[in-house]
Automatic annotation (TrEMBL):
<feature type="transmembrane region" description="Helical">
    <location>
        <begin position="50"/>
        <end position="70"/>
    </location>
</feature>
<protein>
    <submittedName>
        <fullName>AI-2 transport protein TqsA</fullName>
    </submittedName>
</protein>
<dbReference type="InterPro" id="IPR002549">
    <property type="entry name" value="AI-2E-like"/>
</dbReference>
<dbReference type="Pfam" id="PF01594">
    <property type="entry name" value="AI-2E_transport"/>
</dbReference>
<feature type="transmembrane region" description="Helical">
    <location>
        <begin position="76"/>
        <end position="96"/>
    </location>
</feature>
<keyword id="KW-1133">Transmembrane helix</keyword>
<feature type="transmembrane region" description="Helical">
    <location>
        <begin position="300"/>
        <end position="321"/>
    </location>
</feature>
<feature type="transmembrane region" description="Helical">
    <location>
        <begin position="197"/>
        <end position="223"/>
    </location>
</feature>
<feature type="transmembrane region" description="Helical">
    <location>
        <begin position="260"/>
        <end position="280"/>
    </location>
</feature>
<feature type="transmembrane region" description="Helical">
    <location>
        <begin position="361"/>
        <end position="387"/>
    </location>
</feature>
<feature type="transmembrane region" description="Helical">
    <location>
        <begin position="105"/>
        <end position="123"/>
    </location>
</feature>
<keyword id="KW-0812">Transmembrane</keyword>
<comment type="similarity">
    <text>Belongs to the autoinducer-2 exporter (AI-2E) (TC 2.A.86) family.</text>
</comment>
<keyword id="KW-0472">Membrane</keyword>
<dbReference type="GO" id="GO:0016020">
    <property type="term" value="C:membrane"/>
</dbReference>
<dbReference type="GO" id="GO:0055085">
    <property type="term" value="P:transmembrane transport"/>
</dbReference>
<feature type="transmembrane region" description="Helical">
    <location>
        <begin position="328"/>
        <end position="349"/>
    </location>
</feature>
Length: 406
């Protein structure tokens, strides 16, 4: 009996110990699984919160950036124009420096020649511009009359106005017969209308003149400084020779691409303006020089600029000649001049320059036009092209360049 007790005791111990150990292990495993699940849920919740927070902060940052661009437009627009002008004129100043002309003097000479040419063009076209402004009321009247004739006679509103004028005339005649004093209505002469129009434009003109002076001064200093800012930018990369060489290579590629784009656009637009001037003059269009200047300036706006010039010149030709055939001919010549210059320069430009998606350019025109008005429309396409060039040369920004490309 005594010999059996240890065996029973040992048996009980041997039978009971494994049960207790398994229960405790299962309890620990369940506790561990619960803790892991809770931790995973907490991590997912925190990740979701961080994601929402980052998205919200990103949206707020974009809104704040766009608001800053809008509020600071009086500063940013002249700054961008000055930078683009300096990039465009840098090759000329560099060429003068190679001819042993100091950069400050070369910058002054280049800007002086450009200003002299602009003043000469403005002086030569002054009479045409004044005549065009004076003819606007008459052109508007002719357009309304032609539209009325096209619709088949006067409208009901025009008939009511004519009847009212006849009643006023009859009342005036009756008053005259009774000895009443009749005061003739004042007629606004074209010269008076022109004076009022120029007076209304005086404040915007003063603003434009002030901004032009700022752009001129900024362009001169950027041209005279030369590679000063570039050396400072390379110095910010660090003391590593490899990084500095890579920065120099990237900056050289960006500078060459931007200068090539701006110079090509400038030359092509000048050719479009001169070609339009000569073609319209040969066709007998009035104020052909003004149309040439308008065509050259609006050619900076892709698609919309040439289309606007073609439509407006066609309307002007119809009002001048009174013939739909002449209007279509002038419109066709305007598009032909733009197309010829585009066929000569655009393939060469596209072979040297990065391709930009047409939809991206159109969206940029809408965005910058809404943001900065007319200046935004003119600057939209060059800014998008420059942004794509920079993104294509910087590794961290290449996805953006791919998104902007074709």
């Amino acid at each position: 009996m005594q010999g059996d007790r240890p065996n029973r005791h040992d048996g009980r111990v041997i039978e009971k110990m494994p049960v207790v150990t398994i229960d405790s292990m299962n309890l620990k495993n369940e506790t561990l699984h619960d803790t892991t699940a809770e931790d995973s849920a907490a991590v997912r919740i925190r990740s979701s919160r961080y994601l929402r927070m980052n998205v919200s902060l990103g949206v707020l940052a974009i809104i704040a950036f766009v608001a800053a661009l809008y509020l600071a437009r009086d500063f940013i627009v002249p700054l961008l124009i000055g930078i683009l002008a300096s990039y465009t004129l840098t090759p000329l100043v560099t060429w003068l420096k190679a001819c042993y002309v100091p950069r400050p003097l070369g910058a002054a000479l280049v800007l002086g020649v450009i200003l002299g040419g602009l003043f000469w063009i403005a002086y030569s076209l002054h009479d045409d511009a004044v005549a065009m402004i004076k003819n606007l009321p008459e052109a508007t009247r002719k357009m309304r009359q032609n539209m009325s004739d096209t619709r088949g006679g006067p409208t009901a509103l025009q008939n009511m106005r004519e009847a009212a004028k006849q009643l006023e005339g009859a009342a005036a005649d009756a008053g005259t017969k009774q000895g009443a004093l009749v005061v003739a209505p004042l007629s606004q002469e074209p010269s008076s209308w022109l004076s009022d129009y120029l007076l209304a434009l005086s404040t915007p003109m003063i603003t434009v003149i002030g901004q032009s002076v700022i752009v001129l001064i900024l362009t001169y200093f950027l041209l005279a400084a030369g590679a000063h800012f570039r050396r400072k930018l390379i110095g910010l990369v660090g003391p590593s020779i490899t990084k500095q060489k890579e920065a120099v290579r990237i900056l050289d590629e960006i500078n060459v691409q931007i200068q090539l784009y701006l110079l090509t656009m400038l030359v092509s637009n000048v050719l479009i303006g001169v070609g339009t001037w000569l073609a319209f003059g040969a066709m007998g269009m009035e104020q052909a020089g003004i149309w040439g200047v308008i065509s050259g300036v609006l050619s900076f706006v892709p698609y919309l600029g040439p289309a606007s010039v073609a439509g407006a010149s066609g309307i002007a030709a119809f009002l001048q000649f009174g013939s739909l055939l002449h209007a279509l001919a002038v419109t066709g010549v305007s598009l032909l001049v733009t197309g010829i210059v585009g066929l000569v320069f655009m393939p060469w430009l596209q072979s040297k320059f990065a391709h930009v998606n047409m939809a991206v350019i159109f969206i940029a025109l809408l965005f910058f036009g809404w943001l900065w008005g007319v200046w935004g429309v003119l600057l939209g396409a060059p800014l998008v092209a420059i942004i794509k060039v920079i993104c294509d040369r910087v590794d961290s920004l290449k996805p953006i360049g791919t998104l902007l490309g074709r």
